[in-house]
Structure formats: C-alpha cells, structure tokens
C-alpha cells in the first residue's frame, strides 16, 4: 500500500510539474506574442512619425515658395498640360510638385537637377517629372538664385 501511495504521489508530482511546464510555455508564448505586437505598434508609430514629418516638410516648403500644400494652384492649373490637371493625374502632379519643392527646400543653395529628382521618385512619376520640374523652375519655385552646375563652370 505504501508503495502504491508513493507511486500515486510521484505521479501527482509529475503531473503537477508537467502542468507547471505547460503553464510556463503558455506564458512564454503570450509574452512573445505581446512583444511582437509591441514591435508592430512601434513600427506603425515610426511610420506615422515619418509621415507626419514629411507632411510638415511639405507644408513648410510649399508655403515658403507660395504654393498651397495640398492642392494645385491656379497657376499650375493654367500652365501644366491639361492631361496633368485632369482627375487621374492631379494627384500625380501634386505629389511630384510637393516632392520636388521639398527636395529643393532642404538645400536651397544647391541647384536641383532633373536627374536628382528622377533618382529620388517612384517610377510612376518618372514620365511627368520633367514637366513638373521645368514648370517649378521656370516660375521660380525651385532653383531660384542658383545656377546650374554647367553655367557655374562657364562663369568661373
């Protein structure tokens, strides 16, 4: 009987240890899951911070040159090709304009070339980048007071 009781006690002890191990594994899994969720939230916050920073940069840059940050100006509506101001391309023209003006605003003492613009934009904007860059340059929204590198060499 004593042996049977000892065996029962050992079995109960083994079962308790097993249950404790399972609980510990569950807790560990829950902690890992919580850590992953925290990382995802952290990444989302970083993305939001980057988006918010870009929005502030766009607002600063466009206002400095006298353009409305989130809509095309009357001059842009008038001077950009009609295809670019139609509904389908309005967002593309606005995104491009904001990106180019913001790029130049970061280093206004440097001449911003079309090549630099094209190296920094998404492919979907490539086709229209020359027209928008030329428009912004022609009306003094970018590169005002800067000489293109080729002209700087000629004048030195």
End-to-end C-alpha gap: 108 Å
Helix content: over 70%
Q: Rg from C-alpha positions?
A: 31 Å
**Mean pLDDT reading:** 82
Reading the helices and strands in chain order gives: HHHHHHH
* Biggest sheet record: none
Give the DSSP E fraction (strand runs of 2 or more residues): under 5%
Question: Which structural class fits the helix and strand makeup?
Answer: mainly alpha
The count of β-strands is: 0
As residue ranges, the low-confidence spans are: none
What multimeric state do the chains show? single chain
Question: How would you characterize the overall build of this protein?
Answer:
By secondary structure, the chain is mostly helical. The chain is built from seven helices and no strands. Helix 1 crosses helix 4 and helix 4 crosses helix 6. The protein is rod-shaped and about 100 Å long. The protein starts with a helix and ends with a helix.
Question: Notable features of this structure?
Answer:
156 residues; rod-shaped
What are the SSEs and their pairings?
Layout (H helix, E strand, L loop, with lengths): L1 H64 L8 H6 L2 H4 L1 H20 L7 H7 L5 H13 L10 H7 L1
Helix pairs in contact: 1-4, 4-6
